[in-house]
Amino acid sequence: MSKQKxxxxxxxxxxxLAAIGSAVGLGNAWRFPGLAxxxxxGAFLLVYLLVMLVIGIPFLMMEIAIGRKMHRGVPGALRxxxxxxxxxxxxxxxxxxxxxxxxxxxxxxxxxxxxxxFKFADITGDTAAAxxxxxxxxxxxxxxxxxxxxxxxxxxxxxIAWVLIYTCIRNGTxxxxxxxxxxxxxxxxxxxxxxxxxxxxxxxxxxxxxxxIPDFSTLSDPSLWIDAIGQVFYSLSIMxxxxxxxxxxxxxxxxxxxxxxxxxxxxxxxxxxxxxxxxTTMSGTGQLGNMTESGIGTxxxxxxxxxxxxxxxGITNAIFAFxxxxxxxxxxxxxxxxxxxGVSTAISDKFDLNHKKTTLSxxxxxxxxxxxxxxxxxxxxxxxxxxxxxxxxxxxxxxxxAIVIGWLFxxxxxxxxxxxxxxxxxxxxxxxxxxxxxxxxxxxxxxxIWNLVSLFTGGGIYGxxxxxxxxxNLFGGWLILALCIASGFIVKLIEMKLRNxxxxxxxxxx
Length: 510
Ligand code: PHE
Hints:
- By secondary structure, the chain is mainly alpha-helical.
- The chain is 73% helix and 0% strand.
- It binds phenylalanine.
- The site of phenylalanine has 15 residues, from α1, α2, α5, α10 and α14.
């Protein structure tokens, strides 16, 4: 057991809110509606729900349970389960660190747009001007060259982003528990205001029909299933070291089975609410066909076009612009800090370091690295790194975690931990075991192979994504992936170099 004092959640609701805060992020606001638009609305919703129930929820329960049982971040928890599996945990942690670096930049963009929302007051009806607001502000070249142009406003907002992230997690669960009360409810209020506006626009009904009525012909398209699987894992914040860390601060009384259900369904409800906002607003302004699946385009290019068409009053439009971007800020912040918290927990547990100092150092290092994405080349690099982290690293982590728990360990032991304090609802063994042992690794493997095939066939250039050079994929993709995989072995080397290091020999005991 770590000698440093570990934090713990002040109450059950603090944990639930923090986990919901992490799960509910930019992914709900723009990726979910974008994917629904791509895949026949209601059909995507149904498949998403199915995948969430069958694989997402058991995986979420598993991560929280191993964290709670071992009171350690993911590397330490996996090590206690099976000695040799610690590097899988470090793979998750290092990938989470990479995600934190660029997620902070997206967070900075939404802060910047909130500040810049007054610009919408003067461009009523001018969709061309609206679609350029963001690109002008961030001074992007759209390619992997153009390091010379740096956007000072983005750097300013990035500084604000990192200060906010650090402030929220500086005392671990102590501060997180307090801020999530606001960061979880504020975006819901904003979304309700925006949904209210959207629902009263003419054309709103058409939008709702597109969002809710399933077009079952899309069900036979494998890309629908692949996208739904990816979105479920991304949205629940699993395989990112976060949920294990948040679980590790839980007390013995927590009811993991029930709390995981609450977390997953709240996350889903907020995705649906965001879908209502986007589908009604886009439909009301005639933009429905322009929604992009990745979301960045939707949030920064297409949605601004809707903003200038919302009303004839510039000031009113600017106010709605502010509400939208402020909402995105509040959605992003608790996801952004949760990911740093996951990394910090893993490192401070491993080397018995002061949690606060570790968090500060991580914010500084990640903050400096994130400057890379504030240059003119930043957007293209962000796109490449994001693609690799989500399409490959995250999925590999998931496959490996499922193999360690499902095959090298015993999922029934983890289930016992999940169901330890349950009253009415117990997670059934068949559901949990089939999912962790078979369905999760198989679907993730399918997803991984699909992504790999599209990587090699999609871009034309060997191993390159569409539009980016092989060299940039080599650096932003393969190299970062290799470093993340190697991170566990690097940690091992550091451990061997530290003279007084005492290895953590705790084991999972029933
Ligand atoms: N679940 C988050 C979302 O939907 C994903 C995420 C979590 C990303 C934490 C980064 C950090 O946006």
